[in-house]
Structures are given as C-alpha cells and as structure tokens.
Amino acid sequence: MQIRLDIKRQQSPDDKSYIQSIVYEYDDKSEVLSNALGNINKGGCKDTEGNDVSPLSWECSCLQKKCGACAMVIGGRPRLACDAKLSEFANEGFVTVEPLSKFPLIRDLSVDRSVMFDTLRRIRLWLETDAYDNDKVRDIAYESSGCLQCGCCLEVCPNFYVGGRFYGMAAGLPMSKIIAQSQKGNDKDIRQQYKKHFYSGCGKSLACRNICPAGLDADRVMASSNAAAVWKRNVYKKK
Amino acid sequence: MSIIIAGAGLAGLSAAITLAQAGRKCILVSAQPSERAQSVLAEGGINAALDNMGENDSVQEHYEDTVKGGVYIANRRAVKGLTDNAPKTVMWLSSLGVPFNRENGRLLQRPFGGQKKRRTAFAKSSTGKMIMTSLIDKARSFESEGLIKRYPHHEFLRLINDNGICKGMRIKDRISGKCASMYGTVLLACGGMNGMFPGHTTGTVHNTGDAAAAVFMQGAAFSSLEMIQYHPTTIGIPGKRCLVTEAARGEGGRLFVKRDNEPWYFMEEKYPVLKNLMPRDVVAREMFFARRETGSEVMLDMTGIPHKVWCERLPDLKKELMSYTGLDPEKEPINVHEGIHYFMGGILTNEHHRTSIENLYAAGEFTSLYHGANRLGGNSMLGAVYGGITAAEDILSLPQSSECEVVFEDAPSDEPYYEESRARFNDALCEILLDGMGIVRNEQQLDKALSALEELTPENDREKARVMLARASLMSAAERKESRGAHYREDYPQTDDEYKKLSVARTDGGRVHISFIDADKEDICR
Known about the structure:
The complex is a heterodimer of chains A (239) and B (526). Chain A has seven helices and seven strands, in the order ββαβββββαααααα. In chain A, a hairpin with an 8-residue loop joins β1 (2-9) and β2. Chain A is α+β, with helices and mostly antiparallel strands and 239 residues long. Chain A starts with a strand and ends in a 9-residue tail after the last helix. Chain B is α+β, with helices and mostly antiparallel strands and 526 residues long. In chain B, the strands form seven sheets. In chain B, strands 1, 2, 8, 9, 10, 11, 21 and 22 form an eight-stranded mixed sheet that branches. In chain B, strands 20-12-25-26 form a four-stranded antiparallel sheet. In chain B, α6 (210-217) packs across α15 and α13 packs antiparallel against α14. The model of chain B has no long low-confidence stretch (mean pLDDT 96). At the A-B interface, α1, α2, α3 and α5 of A face α5, α11 and α13 of B.
C-alpha cells in the first residue's frame, strides 16, 4: 500500500512555507501517521521531485493517544498523528499534514503551545484546600482530569484565538475539576474565572464536539460546571 | 547553588512539590510538559496497605510481598520506608484530588500480581493520568509563587562534575538549540531506559535513556541493569508495545493457549493459589514457555469480567482495546505478548536517594532502588511518588543557598552530548540488546551480543554512551550466573544464594566493571 503525504514544511516562522510531497509505502492497514513520520525521519527518503527529505520537526511522546503531543491538522482536521490511520485516506490517495494553526509555529509541524499552560496558571487553576469528594464530584473530576492539553479543541473553535479573553475548552475542562473539588465557599474565584473566560465567550458552535482525541464527554462536564459556576446551584450537594 | 530537578513526571513533580511545601525554590527541567510524561500512561493503580477490603492487610505484608517479589535483592530499609509510608502517600494524593474509585467513602482496592491481598488503589484504568493531573495542579500553585520554575522544553545533556562532586548540569533548549549551565544540587528523575529499545517498549519516546547513558559515562554507579521487566500482557501497535493493564487479570482476566485444540489455562494449572496474578516475571516466562511448547499464541480471556466492572473500573481499557484490535474484549479473547515495560535497574542510590556522586540524587524509574529483580504491579507509581518525596526531604537537610542564574548561549560545536543519536544506530543497538536480553537468556547469546556491540560504529557522544550502557547491561546479565526475577538463564536455571546481591556497573569511560554487593549494605554508594 502507498499514500502521498503532503506535508507543510517551514524552517522558521520567518521563512516561507511550502508543501513537500512524499510517497510513503506501508504494509499494515493499522499504520498510523506518527509511525510514518518516524520512519521518514530515519533518513534516506526522497520526495516526489527526487529531493532528499530533511528531518521533519514534529512532537510525539506516548504514541498511544494519551499524551497529546502529536496533535496536528491531518486531512484538514486537528487530531493526533498516532491516531490517524493512513488507510482512512486510501480512497483519496493522499493526505495533507499541517501544524496546528492557532499557535506560534516553531518549525514544520511543531508549534509552541505554551500559551495553554500559561493560561492555566493565569486562571489560578489549583485547589486551595483538600479536595471535596462525593460520587458526582469524582465523576466530573475523572472526566475533566483526562484533558491532554493537545489543543485540538482550540484549533476548531471559532471563538478561541491566542491572546483573546476566551480560553476555550482546554481551559474549561480543567476548570471543571477545580470547581467540582473545591470546598464549599472556596470556589468563588474559579467560578468567576469560568464564567468570564469560558462560559461567556463560548459561542456554542459546538465545533469542539467529537473532536477531543481523548473522547472526553465535554457536554456532561459543562452542564455541571455551568450549573455550579453560572447559576450557583449546589449541583455537587456540598455541605 | 539551586536545586535542579530533571524530569517532570511523578517523581520529579512529587519532589518539586515537597521542596516547595517546605518553602524551598527549585528548577524543574523537562523535555516536554508534564502532560506528556510517561507517568500518564500508568493504568492499573498504586499499592498501599490501607486494608479497605476487610482482608486484614498490613504494611508488613506489603513489605514482605515487595521484598519477595523482588527476589530478595531490593534494599530492605528502602522497601520498609516505601511500604510503611504507602498509606500516607496514597491518602496525600487523594487529598490533592485524585479521583480514586471509592465505595462508601473508602478507597477501593483491587488485586494485583504477587500479592494475596487486595492492595492496589485505582482510578478506573487511568490511574497515572489522574495522579499526574492532580500533581500538575498542585505544582502550578507553587509555580505562581515562584517556588517552582519550569524549563518545559529543555533537555538534560550532562552533569557538571568537579573532582567527583556534582556541581550542576548542562541543558539544551529543544526549541532554540541553545544551551545553559545550571548550578546546584541535581535530582535526576528522567524515567526508564526505554530508548535503548525503540519501538519495543510500552514507554514513551522521550525516555530516551540518554541521560542515564551520559551519567553512567560520567562515573555514576548503576545497578541491576540486567533486570528488565517484560510485562506479560501487551499488544503490538504501530511504533510500540501497548500495555494491557494487570488490572485486566486482577478483575478476572485469564491467560490461555490452545493445546490440542482445547484452551489450556496454564497459569491456573501451574500456580493454583495466585493463578494469573503471579509476579510479572513468572507470568511472562510461563507465557514464553507455553507458546514454545504448544506453538500457539497466548490469549487473554476477559469475557468473564462483569459488564458493570468494565463500566466502573476498566472503561478506558475497553475503549483502547477496541480501538487497536477491533475486538470487543467483553466478547472475545485478545492475543497478548510479553513486552518490555519497566527497568528495575538504573542509577544506584541509597535509601535517601543519594547516588555515588556527591550532590547528585535520583528518583523514579531512573533509579534501581525499590524493586530488586522484579517489580510488583502497583509499586511503580508508589516508588516514583514516595521516592520523589524522600529525595526532596533529604535535599531539604542540605544547607540552603542562593539561586543560580541561568544564561543561555549558542552551543559550541563541541558541546558534549549535543548531537542526538541516529535512529538507525539506535535500532541496530536495540537488535543486539534484544538478542542478548530476552526473557530467556544464555551465555552464548550474551557473548554474541557483546561481540556484536564491538561491530557498531558510534559517531557522537550519545551513541558512544549508549554503547557503554548497553555493554554494562549485557555484562551484568552475563556475570549473574543464576536465575532470579526477571533475569532467567536457561544455562543457570536455579536461584543461587551466592548471587543474592546487587550487580553494580561502573565505567571510567573506557572499560566496564561489574561487581556484586549486598543490597542492604550501609553506605551502598561508596
């Protein structure tokens, strides 16, 4: 089997970008893009014009959908390279591979997502006391703790841009853990942050629905957080 | 002089938080943000004798199981500290917001291998990710206070040593390529040496083994390098082995092979008490033998696990297996294979996590401290968290000093360890190691592997250091002329009391020297 990978290359933010096409051969229908990129970087690969392919810059870590490092735009959709089976694109015969566009480019497919981590610091995302616990709190904490901080949800979001007031689902989900687990009377600050930087900025496009590589159930988490943070309902029955 | 931690997984974060809670500043260096650390992959749980399951469990039994599981070559003082403090450690994590499964308010505990009591606390089947998220949140609060300063895309290159004393370390910014010196006490928490076996472990690509190799070359003593844990149940996915958590067997999964067209539940037949939950070294080896005997693949039958358990305790495992195998584990057995999962060996430390180099500490999978010849499931996260805390507590006893200024400069062309090793070189080295250090080993294979190492042509510092670490690993395996834990020699199948010791490897940069020392020796690093 073979597929053409149309990879967006860019040496640095100041350089011009170009598309480099590489015909990649593979045997197994379970082959994924991350493995293809790894194999290309082993060297000796030529593009469709016969040029040597210099090492591609891209991030990866766990290779099994649990760390979010390899998020990129694949076939026009943000997703993890380790979860993108090449066989999905067999009919087209090619797939486009680009970096996430919302974050500053480092090189090729690598982007600087530090804004996501800075945001979490800015909204003071931590528990001030020991965690509150009951079944409902734990359920929401489990779901929201699963966020990979990959940035896929921010890439598709029409309301999110770096430097804006709206911080997107990648902040909304982690905030939900803290809202749920803060002791009664200790959550005013995080509730305000949620309302200001998530609830009121979300245009309800639902573009992020079904985009999360971790498959997190954002609707369920948001329903609880909206009730707790915006309508100040005691959804977690805190005493 | 500052306190510098390399690695921001469970061990590094736990250490940083412990220091910050005491009001001490530290620098936290990692190649990637904590969210990408290998610790997020840990699934099944964390051990502590909380005795929540009405089985009269005790810290003493946890201690005994750990020492026995490690086949009596783990430092017993260290294991005592680990197991005595396990309940406190797990309850601390719970207070930080880890959503452990509970019933009537109490943490539930599941059975894990090599332990007769249900002792493993868990958050469904993503315990590592859940613990990491809570630790990251906690660390963030100290980052805002300036007590923890992160360098989150920076790689450890080497130690700065002066007359055998660690004075700090060199780092490389992975974005700009610039380098800097950091001066102070160093704590290495860089994880296991997965990168020595690229594509063949359950770990992440960022656990390259480069830090271990560089520090070994710089004179640090390493121990138990022959002790590599093959996890019994992994599946092959593109580019790596994917773990099927031991919890799958803890919750009722059964291993079998087809023999004369009938399923043979070989673990249950051979080990009627612990059955499928024997320690991992035993299970992996029996799988190897069962496959060799019958010529058929080993299957993991999880069809007997109740649907409720899948929903409440193993939802992520089911999702993962369906995604990778296309099979529903509730309905049909899954083909599993042993895969490299954990390195019991690593840098030698004493129970305070001090290494053989003054002013250098280590914690987590980077060390060889707690697990002897075989690690029990559920003890790795405990070892990482408790180890990070313990190292930090010892560092707190050092005199406080002023912070170092970190200045990045363009790396000179001869910056040691700057160039990465080539992927094809790593693959070639890996093949040699796999040939020598499989589940079943013998002298002939080990000698052949050692000879093959000589044929490699390393081109840069990292490649040279990798060869040296590989040589030390093969030599440790060759010198241990017995079978113990994860190290099984078909030419020496018996366990021999003469080797109830730690193998210790050192190099002066040229030759490797292997010795055997008593694991309980005072001042073990001297």
